[in-house]
Every structure is written in C-alpha cells, then in structure tokens.
Amino acid sequence: MDLFPRFLYCFPLLCLLYTLWQIFDRRRHQNCYILDYECYKPSDDRKLNTRFCGEVIRRNKQLGLNEYKFLLKSIVSSGIGEDTYGPRMVLEGRETSPSLEDAIIEMNDFFLDTIDKLFKKTGILPSEIDVLVVNISMLAAVPSLSSQIIHHYKMKEDIKVYNLSGMGCSASPISINIVQNIFKTQRNVQALVVTSESLSLGWYTGKDRSMILSNCLFRSGGCAILLTNKVALKEKAMFKLKCLVRTHHGAKDESYNCCIQKEDDQGYVGFHLGKNLPKAATRAFVDNLKEIAPKILPVRELLQFTLLTLIRKTKQKYFKIGAGARPAIDFKTGIDHFCLHTGGKAVIDAVAQNLNLSEHDIEPARMTLHRFGNTSASSIWYVLAYMQAKNRLKKSNKVFMISFGAGFKCNSCLWEVMRDLDQDGNVWKEFINSYPPKTIANPFLEKYGWINEEDPDTFHVPDDYVIP
Does residue 249 carry a catalytic annotation? Predict the structure, then answer.
C-alpha cells in the first residue's frame, strides 16, 4: 500500500528527468561534425606562371598601354605567386570562345579527384551519403552538377540534394548552414558538401578595369567536406561546429552592385568589382561581428568592452573631455586561429587591422593566396589545410572562419578542434616545408616593369613579340 503513494510522489520527478534526458539526447544528435575534408590540387600543367600570364594578357587585343599598366600594378600587389592554377581552355588559348564542355570538364576533374580521395580517406561509401550540397556559383548545367555526382557515384534514391548557384565566395558557410539545419531535425545523417567555382565560362576578355581585375585574383580550386551528426562517429571527427552567423546586405544598392556579373559596354561578360567593394565589405563584416561576438567570446571580455564604452561615452557627455581611442574587443580571448577568406591582399589586410591580428595569425591566409590564389568559396578550406599541415590545430582549439561574397554577404562560423591534427597528407604536403618563403613578391615587376616607361602615343606590342 505504501508503494503507490511513493510512486505518485516520484512520478513528476521521473517525468522531469525523462524530459531533460530527451532534450539532452536531442541536442547530442543535433551537433554538426566534420569527419574529414579534401582540397583539390590541379595537375602541374595547369599552373599560371609569370611568363604564361604575360602571354594571356598579350592575347587580349582589347587592351592598350593603360590597361597593361593597371594589370601590372594589380598583379604585383595581389599577393599571388607563380604556382596558382587556371582552367584548361586558358592554357590552350581558347579563353575568347569557351564551351559548356570546357566548364563541365573543369568540374569533373575536380569532382572525380577530390571526392574519390575523401571517400577513400574516411572509408565512407557513396551509398551512405544522406545529404549532398553542391555550390558552384557561375555554372548552371542540366542535369545539375549535383545530379552528375549522384549519377557517377550511384548514390541512393532518397538522398536530399541542394544545388546552389550565385552565392559567390561566401557559399561554404551557406552550405554548412543547410547541413546544420537538417541535422537539427534528423538523426544519424551523413552529408557531403562540394564547393568550387567554374572559371571556364567566367574568364573576362574585355578591357573594363573593374572586370579584368577578377582574372588577376580568381584561380581553380575546390574542396569536398564530409559532415555528420552521428554520435557514434564523434571520436573520429576533426571539427565540431559551435556557431554560424550569416549577414546579407543585398537590400542596399551600394552593397548589391559592388560585386556583380554583367556585360561591359562592348558586350563582354565578366565579373565587376566596384570601387565601393571595400566599404561594403567592411559594413557587412562589422555587422556580422556584432552578432557573432556575444556568442563566441568570454563574458569577461564582453563586460570589459561594455564598461570601457560606457566610460568613454560618459566622459564625452558629462565632462566634455576627449575620450581617447574607441575600445576594441580582443577576439583572441575566445579564438585560437583565424581562417580568413583569400579575397586578395587588401581583404586580408583589412580584416587583420579590424581584428588586430598578428602576422602569425594571418600567415595561413597570405600563404594560401600566394600558392593557390582566390579559389572562391573553397579558399577558407585551403587556409584551414595550411594550419593543419603546420601542426597548429590542437584539441579544443577554436577556429574562426570568415568569408565574403557577392550579394553582398559576410558569413562566419566557429569550429572546435576535436583532436590533435597532423598533416594527414593534405593538399599542402608536398611543399609545406618551403612555406612561408622568405619573400612572397612575384616577379611580374621585374619582367614587365618596362611597361611603366612606355609612351601611350607610340606604344605597340607586335604580334611576334616574345615574352622575356
């Protein structure tokens, strides 16, 4: 007789414990882990060295001396070296008349090499993939690129597929966000994210300065990432997603138009990079930091910043005295490594200045830009691979990824390193010991500096001119 009253007394407590366990168990299965990733290294015959780049520029009959001078200045200050990769149609001299087949072949070279290696490294079978997200901004094929991957690897019929285009350089966090949201509603899911850019149909052959600049920065590359929310695979995971924030300023005309694909006055299609791009990027970056900082930084750092800001405003309002420099948040209090988008030397420098980063902090981004160029949405994964190849990533470290893209967008996310990571034979393995080099200056000025001394009225490059 005493058991029943006791049961009634304990029943609410048991219900509470059961509810708490359900919440805990649900959250355990909502975590987003990276099992592994694989960056693409094209074959050496696709390298764009100084001499060949000079030849490509000379082949563009739209250019005059002023354009040559502009290109020389841009390339010299770009931070790009001589070992970056381009599409085959440029290497074969067909950049003025690329075909759809060129773009498809460019993507297939990347797909087959990188995805094959990723499946081999992880032991995961293509038939075990539940979600596939493919982001290639400037190529929309029929059937879709995601369908081509599914067809080649014979993936299962109920796979969830997302094929993104037009997302630009910030597409990787968008793809991760899609996977993250799926993980919140379904258990034991394995997802494959494939990120790259097609340059074959996006190579600009006109003379608009704002558009030929993209030829100086963008290079071939890509990355495949395998993610899961399986608790059983937690110990094998490399990274765990802690936080992700997306900022979109597409409603603002200045931001929307600063980075856009369009035709120039002569009808040549290219990618316009406007003069107001740095301003638009800074605004998006600041707004993104305002949202993500409270989620990733220690409370003491946030309280200190708030207190100093309050003191500064009080001095200005009530004591009418100079308040001094604005207080700044020290992001290093909650972040160990900074994985910056390699949009260009100016982009890296701007982020470094805003976050007060050291040369050591931005070394991975600088070296990635020098070795691989701006590979669009995949660039942050090359930066991450550099950190791994240098044995910088240790268990519990926090890695902050920042990317910018057309729209205009700034997306960022924070990853936690799940175990000590070594080189693991990634894309940097063959040359990591030579990085960082003593100098990252490219030899363009040495070879083509004479252009700056030429007279526009008499300058002419003969058809049989031999590049030195």
Answer: no
Residue showing tokens 């049961």: 7
Contacts of 72 (CB under 8 A, 6+ apart): 444, 445, 448, 449, 451, 452
Omega cis (within 30) before 456: no
Query: For the segment 184-202, what is each residue's pLDDT rounded down to a tens digit?
Result: 999 999 999 999 999 998 8
Bridge-based pairing of strands 160-164 and 131-136 is parallel
* 152 classed as catalytic: no
Residue 211 amino acid letter: M
Q: What is the pLDDT of residue 119?
A: 96
The residue from 169, 216, 258, 410 that is catalytic is 169
* β-strand partners of 85: 47
Strands (E), 28-105: 33-39
Domains, the chain, ordered by start: 30-47+83-297+334-437 (3.40.47.10)
3-class SS of residue 368: helix
Candidates 215, 370, 411, 413; catalytic one: 370
Residue 181 carries which side chain, given as an amino acid letter? N
Split at pLDDT 50, 70, 90, the class of 2 is: low
Q: Which of 53, 177, 215, 248 is catalytic?
A: 248
